């Protein structure tokens, strides 16, 4: 297994096994679908995102809290669009049925 393959596998595993199930169910499928297409700088961003505490990250994904500038941008928008597409029953503010 190459270093790049090992990194992708590790990122996918970390996205699925954060310990906060609600975040796992968004980040895991997102990682499965997208990390293999990420450029090295995008992988660095995603890896840094996975270091963020669960409650903070989940709040950003659901837009309960503003996303800090260092994590805001095209990839966070892609993650939020994935959330909207994959989980249409979850409103942006995290209320069921929205």
Question: Care to describe what's here?
Answer:
The chain is mainly α. The chain contains five helices and no strands. The longest helix has 14 residues, at 3-16. The mean pLDDT is 89.
Short account of what is shown:
This protein has five helices and no strands. The chain is an all-alpha fold.
Task: Give the helices and strands, then pairings.
Elements: H1 3-16, H2 21-34, H3 40-49, H4 54-61, H5 74-86
Helix pairs in contact: 1-2
User: Oligomeric state of the chains?
Assistant: single chain
The helix content is 55-70%
Work out the helix count: 5
Spans of at least 5 consecutive residues whose pLDDT stays below 50 are none
What are the salient characteristics of this protein?
98 residues
